[in-house]
């Protein structure tokens, strides 16, 4: 029974990751589930707000670096 059990376990260990990789790389599945879920979580209006926030933070960092550079020179 030991050899049969080991063969079953090895088959399971090899089959599961390969099957998950194959399922995850199906373009139709990705479009149907992942992109749809992404749009539900982050609708376009929220995305615009997030981009504006990122831009404000980037400008603040640049201004801080410019002030520090001007003070050091």
From TrEMBL:
GO terms for cellular component: mitochondrial inner membrane. The keyword Transmembrane helix applies. GO terms for biological process: mitochondrial respiratory chain complex IV assembly. InterPro entries: Pet100. Keywords: Membrane, Mitochondrion, Transit peptide, Transmembrane, Transmembrane helix. The keyword Transit peptide applies. GO terms for molecular function: unfolded protein binding. It is a single-pass membrane protein. It is found in: Membrane; Mitochondrion membrane. Belongs to the PET100 family. This is PET100 cytochrome c oxidase chaperone. The gene is PET100.
């Amino acid at each position: 029974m030991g050899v049969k059990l080991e063969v079953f376990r090895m088959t399971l260990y090899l089959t599961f990751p390969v099957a998950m990789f194959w399922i995850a790389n199906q373009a139709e599945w990705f479009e149907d589930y992942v992109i749809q879920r992404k749009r539900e979580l982050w609708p376009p209006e929220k995305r615009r707000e997030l981009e504006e926030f990122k831009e404000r933070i980037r400008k603040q960092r640049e201004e801080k670096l410019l002030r520090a550079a001007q003070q050091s020179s």
